[in-house]
Amino acid sequence: QVQLVESGGGLVQPGGSLRLSCAASGFTLDYYNIGWFRQAPGKEREGVSCISGINGRTYYADSAKGRFTISKGDAKNTVYLQMNNLKPEDTAVYYCAASQNGCLRYDRMDYWGKGTLVTVST
Prior knowledge:
By secondary structure, this protein is mainly β. The protein has strands at 3-7, 10-12, 18-25, 33-39, 46-51, 58-60, 68-72, 78-83, 92-99, 111-112, 116-120.
């Protein structure tokens, strides 16, 4: 009964901000890495950010550094992705995923949510 459910996507203007949420159930997040991935039409899925379950270390794609922040909520079943200074090229379906092996590499993730759409446009 492992589930990951994303929320928080929507339409935002360039330079704006959004906070995505990933609610997990059916497993203990402390022992899993939780990553955020995105996929734009016609492009491959790419890792955006990840947080380690064991030590809480965070990792970011170059495109996200300085703009995005991944964190765990006070309720330990929730992971957030704060996205600031959004750009049109950030437009994509954003997914959260869990794994004990991978972090930013999509092919190493085991459990996936269904995604939430982020559109950055005027």
